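Example 9 (inverse folding). The structure is encoded as follows.
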């Protein structure tokens, strides 16, 4: 059951609004990958969503596997979140003052995430990661930090170096506006390469404040950590009194209540989060060891602030979502659905004789169109045939399925996807792969 097999979908209204949007918004979009540039299509303007479905302004219905790039782990617009948000809106939308909701949110995160003893709320993942880097620098009194090639940690200056996500999707090798002085404190090494990390420490003795890593990379496509990689990072950081930061903006509450750190049993010093903990509202958070977190103002000298930090609507939505995720069986079911979709896709890719590498951790996955034997870092991810991905994207969209408009992002399965939705996706993928 492909939603629109054989139909010629019309996107007239989306096309008209995209044209109008370009007069007022750079590129017509408020975040670059949304422009569909690298997949050679025009963006679809959405109107509403529920469960596994989204509807565009032309009235087309899609089964959605983007999930707002991660937050929609329960599916779109769940009643549990809607009810809580409606209740909170009646009480107030922003106070710029403490609320009980923030305390409840902090407690929920501290109880669930092994490495977090204290947490500060912010308004986006970008804010969370840039604040975590500042805090690590303040704590260690060192200036440099290590990030991994193809890793994406938001768009603050020092983290844009060799970044994944939209940066690699649009092929922007280095970003004008990031000064050389800033970039020189960012040391870039290949993901999954612990020897390169050790070499970076040897070349920069007592200079490295932090390692920031996506414990499961999600912004060069999904790339799982090799066995021992995260443990190796922990060990190196301990040896050099360097702060280990897990960027769990995508993986936090996605791979289990304890995120990737709970799943792999490696505890970082600081953790950054976003997406899911806001239940679909703008949010971010960074937290970790009490001894480090207490260096933040107003206790310590490391300054960080935000008018909308801990916004009550975002807290209400996030808390409602975390409550739903805490119910028994949610993650087991997400794992089952992820594995079910993976096995279906493997089968149709092999039937179609297409060279692909499929990576999956829990409910996040990527089909890389590559004949490389495996994808373990940016170099291997970059062997992908992005034109073939673009053709696959278009085929899937025209059959009523939304996937990320980039080879270098994740596909997300949600609790709202039924087995019928997943079967339909696999059936559509079989058709798409045959005509590529
Ligand atoms: N940073 C997101 C992808 N990993 C993109 C979000 C968006 O464009 O909406």
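The amino acid assigned to each position is listed next.
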């Amino acid at each position: 059951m492909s939603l629109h097999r054989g139909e010629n979908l019309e996107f007239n209204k989306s096309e008209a609004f995209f044209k109008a949007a370009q007069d007022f918004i750079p590129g017509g979009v408020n975040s670059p990958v949304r422009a569909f540039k690298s997949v050679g299509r025009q963006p679809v303007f959405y109107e509403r969503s529920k469960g596994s479905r989204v509807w565009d302004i032309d009235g087309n219905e899609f089964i959605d596997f983007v999930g707002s790039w991660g937050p929609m782990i329960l599916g779109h617009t769940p009643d549990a979140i809607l009810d809580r948000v409606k209740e909170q809106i009646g009480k107030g939308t922003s106070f710029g003052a403490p609320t009980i909701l923030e305390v409840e949110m902090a407690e929920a995160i501290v109880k669930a995430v092994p490495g977090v003893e204290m947490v500060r709320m912010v308004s986006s993942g970008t804010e969370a990661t840039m604040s975590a880097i500042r805090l690590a620098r303040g704590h260690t009194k060192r200036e440099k930090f290590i990030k991994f090639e193809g890793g994406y940690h938001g768009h603050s200056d020092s983290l844009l170096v060799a970044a994944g996500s939209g940066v690699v999707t649009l092929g922007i090798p280095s970003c004008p506006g990031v000064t050389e002085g800033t970039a020189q404190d960012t040391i870039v090494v290949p993901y999954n390469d612990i020897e390169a990390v050790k070499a970076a420490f040897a070349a920069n003795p007592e200079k490295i404040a932090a390692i920031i890593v996506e414990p499961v990379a999600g912004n060069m496509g999904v790339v799982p950590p090799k066995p021992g990689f995260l443990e190796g990072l922990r060990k190196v950081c301990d040896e050099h009194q360097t702060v280990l930061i897990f960027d769990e903006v995508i993986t936090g509450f996605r791979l289990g209540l304890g995120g990737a750190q709970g799943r792999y049993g490696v505890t970082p010093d600081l953790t950054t989060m976003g997406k899911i903990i806001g239940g679909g509202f703008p949010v971010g958070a960074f937290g970790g060891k009490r001894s480090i977190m207490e260096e933040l103002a107003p206790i310590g000298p490391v300054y960080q602030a935000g008018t909308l930090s801990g916004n009550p609507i975002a807290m209400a939505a996030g808390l409602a979502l975390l409550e739903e995720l805490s119910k028994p069986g949610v993650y087991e079911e997400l794992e089952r659905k992820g594995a079910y979709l993976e096995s279906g896709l493997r089968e149709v890719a092999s039937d179609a004789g297409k060279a692909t590498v499929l990576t999956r951790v829990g409910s996040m996955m990527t089909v890389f169109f590559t004949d490389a034997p495996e994808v373990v870092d940016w170099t291997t991810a970059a062997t992908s045939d992005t034109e073939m991905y673009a053709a696959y994207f278009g085929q899937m969209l025209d059959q009523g399925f939304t996937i990320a408009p980039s080879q270098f992002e994740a596909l997300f399965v949600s609790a709202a996807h039924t087995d019928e939705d997943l079967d339909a996706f696999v059936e559509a993928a079989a058709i798409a792969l045959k005509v590529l």
